[in-house]
Design a protein that fits this description.
Layout lengths: L20 E10 L2 E11 L4 E5 L6 H9 L6 E6 L2 E2 L10 E4 L11 H11 L4 H14 L15 H13 L5 E5 L7 H18 L2 E6 L2 H7 L2 E6 L2 E6 L1 H6 L4 H6 L4 E10 L4 E5 L5 E4 L10 E6 L5 E3 L10 E11 L3 E8 L4 E7 L16 E5 L6 E3 L2
Parallel strand pairs: 3-8, 3-9, 6-7, 7-8
Antiparallel strand pairs: 1-2, 1-4, 4-5, 9-10, 11-12, 11-14, 12-13, 14-20, 15-19, 16-17, 16-19, 17-18
Helix pairs in contact: 2-3, 2-4, 3-4
């Protein structure tokens, strides 16, 4: 029987826990351009933390400041209690794994892994022992004598990871570590990376633009945009409880219904959407005045689709026409055109095989969409 999660598992919930990495009011300017804009961030020992955002949001600049390749224009970076602002990269308790892997093409796998240890002047026997441990951990023992061009993309990624970890850094920084891999290998390698991180116990900070990768890998995610953090939280918090339309749309897909609050009770809220037919009932109160303009976010998988009128007491339902269907095997995606010509997207599991081979819902059919009151997220920005 699994044990309940504790503050030891989630140190960010413990007010007594001391962050291992502290980013305090850090900004970085390049001339008139502000790449990172006064951010604060606490990362705890043993976390696998993801910085997530689109191109140019500032995530890689922040990672380079953690590594020491860039100096903050203002603010401070503290790792394990020591201020790193004026500490050069080679003296920091961190290592960095680059997107390109940067392996030495003329060296074998074991020589690539051993390179940093030899540069540090470790005894030959100690180098051999550490390299052996790393080869076993990343399951490359049989490839030790091969050179990078003789390896697959996933194998090269594991060599780069082993080389980064062999010096036992306190923090490993990973810049888009899986970007060079194809989709299937990337998904497989995500779990390998998690298992390795769990074994070594090193704090990982990963930069990625891939939402699914961040959701799969991380203990927590910081969503960045224009040099600032939009939201910081666990994958579940970020996905199920976004604090803005930007976050809701960046993490997965979200259908947005714009409207105004017409009733705000202690235990419920009613939003009249722009679609006259659609009144949205939310099963909890909010500290928002009646009449306030809001957006209600609904994830595609939270919406039901049916040819029959649902029994929803007139709330949380809307009629539309099937505009497009995407059959994905395990699921189908439906794009439904509603009365104001907007498209609502629904993802529905294909739990039963159609008896006659025809889809249960087809193009240009009239359908009804409905959802539970608990699945609506009200956003004010």
């Amino acid at each position: 029987m699994s044990q309940p999660m504790t503050h030891a598992d989630r140190p960010w919930l413990d007010p007594e826990a001391e962050p291992f990495i502290k980013v305090q009011s850090v900004s970085k300017h390049f001339g008139d351009f502000t790449a990172v804009d006064g951010v604060d961030l606490d990362i705890y020992k043993g976390e696998l933390f993801c910085l997530l955002g689109g191109s140019g949001c500032g995530k890689s600049t922040l990672l380079r400041m953690l590594a020491g390749f860039e100096t903050p224009s203002s603010g401070s970076i503290i790792i394990d209690g020591a201020n790193m602002n004026h500490v050069p990269p080679y003296e920091r308790p961190v290592n960095m794994m680059f997107q390109s892997y940067a392996l030495f093409p003329h060296m074998t796998v074991e020589s690539n892994i051993a390179y940093g240890l030899k540069r540090d002047g470790l005894a030959k026997a100690e180098v051999a022992h550490k390299v052996e441990e790393m080869l076993a951990m990343v399951e490359l023992m049989q490839f030790r004598k091969r050179k990078p061009h003789q390896l697959s993309g996933g194998q090269r990624q594991r060599v780069a990871l082993a080389r980064s970890l062999v010096k036992q850094p306190k923090v490993l920084l990973l810049d888009e570590p899986l970007a060079a891999l194809d989709k299937r290998l990337r998904e497989q390698t995500q779990f390998e990376l998690m298992n390795i991180q769990d074994k070594v116990g090193v704090t990982f900070v990963v930069v990625t633009h891939d939402q699914e990768e961040a959701m799969t890998l991380s203990t927590r995610i910081a969503v960045m945009d224009a040099g600032r953090f939009m939201q910081i939280g666990t994958p579940t918090e970020i996905y199920e409880f976004p604090t803005s339309r930007l976050v809701a749309n960046f993490i997965g897909n979200a259908n947005m219904f714009e409207g105004r609050i017409t009733e705000n009770g202690q235990d419920h809220v009613i939003v009249q959407s722009k679609s006259p037919e659609c009144q949205i009932y939310i099963d909890h109160g909010l500290s928002i005045q009646e009449g306030t303009r809001v957006w209600v976010a609904l994830r595609p998988e939270k919406i039901r689709i049916s040819k029959q009128v649902p029994d929803n007491d007139g709330y949380n339902m809307i009629k539309g026409m099937v505009d497009d269907i995407g059959y994905l095997g395990g699921t189908s995606t439906y794009r439904i055109k509603i009365d104001d010509d907007r498209i609502v997207e629904i993802t529905s599991p294909n739990q039963a095989r159609p008896k006659d081979g025809n889809p249960p819902i087809d193009w240009d059919e009239e359908v009804y969409l409905s959802w539970d009151a608990a699945n609506s997220v009200v956003l004010t920005k």
